[in-house]
Amino acid sequence: MNGIVTNQIGKGADQSGGYYSQLMKEYDGVIISSDLAKMSTLPVSHEAGANQPQYIIIAQGESSRLHIPSLSKENASKAIVLADSPVTVEPAGVEVAVLRQIDLDSILQLLAQRGLCSVLVDFREAGESFASLLTDFQEDKLVQKVVLEFLPVWLASEGLNNLAFGGRQSFPLNNVEYMEVNGCMLLEGYVDV
C-alpha cells in the first residue's frame, strides 16, 4: 500500500511541543504554496523564545492579485512572494519577486543571498506546479532531510496523487528514525548529499 501526501497535519502538531511547531523554530524560512497562504493561518512556532520563520510563498499561474488573510500589515515584511508573473499582494508591504524560472535551485540561491540557510518546504495545499519544485532534487543534492508524519486517516483517492515527485530514480533515506511527538508518528531520514 502506498501512502499519499495529505493537506493536514496531526492534532497538536502545530501547538507548543508539537513537531511542526518545533520545525518552525528550527528553520529560517518555510516555503508554502499560495493556496495554503490563502486558505489557512500561516505556519508559526509556539515554542518559547522562537523566532518566526520567513514566509516564502510560491505563486505560479496566479491571477494578478493574491490576498493572504492571515498575514497582518505588521508582519508583511516577514513574507516574500515568488511569482512567475507580476502580482499585487494584500496586505501591502509584502515583497514580490518575479522569477524567470521557479525551481528549488533558483529559490534556494535567492534565499541564500538574503541570509537564509535552512528552509522547510511544506506540501500542504500544494498542486502539481508546486510539486515540480522538487523535480530532480536528489540528483541536484538540494534536500538534506525528509520528515514524514503518518496520519491515522484513510483517504479515498480518485487516482494517482499529484504529488509524486523527486526525480528519475528511487533512493534510500539514511539514519532513519521513527518517533512519537505529542501523539504524532514521524519518520525522519536524510538524503545522501
How would you characterize this protein structure?
The chain is of the alpha/beta class and 193 residues long. The protein has one domain: Dihydrofolate Reductase, subunit A (3-Layer(aba) Sandwich), CATH 3.40.430.10. The protein is 15% helix and 26% strand. It has helices spanning 19-26, 34-39, 104-113, 128-131; strands spanning 29-33, 54-59, 65-67, 79-83, 88-90, 95-98, 119-121, 145-150, 174-181, 184-190. The chain has a five-stranded parallel β-sheet. The chain has a three-stranded antiparallel β-sheet with strand order 8-10-9, with no helix packed on it. A two-stranded parallel sheet has the order 3-5. It is globular and about 40 Å long. The chain starts with 18 loop residues before the first helix and ends with a strand. The model has no long low-confidence stretch (mean pLDDT 85).
Strand order of the largest sheet: 6-4-2-1-7
User: What is the N-to-C order of secondary-structure elements (H for helix, E for strand)?
Assistant: HEHEEEEEHEHEEE
On the 0 to 100 scale, the average pLDDT is 85
Shape: globular
Tally of distinct domains = 1
Total helical segments: 4
Identify the CATH class: Alpha Beta
Low-confidence stretches: none
> How many strands, which pairing sense, and closed or not: the largest β-sheet?
5 strands, parallel
CATH architecture: 3-Layer(aba) Sandwich
How far apart, in Å, are the first and last alpha carbons? 29 Å
In CATH, the topology is named: Dihydrofolate Reductase, subunit A
Helix content range: 10-25%
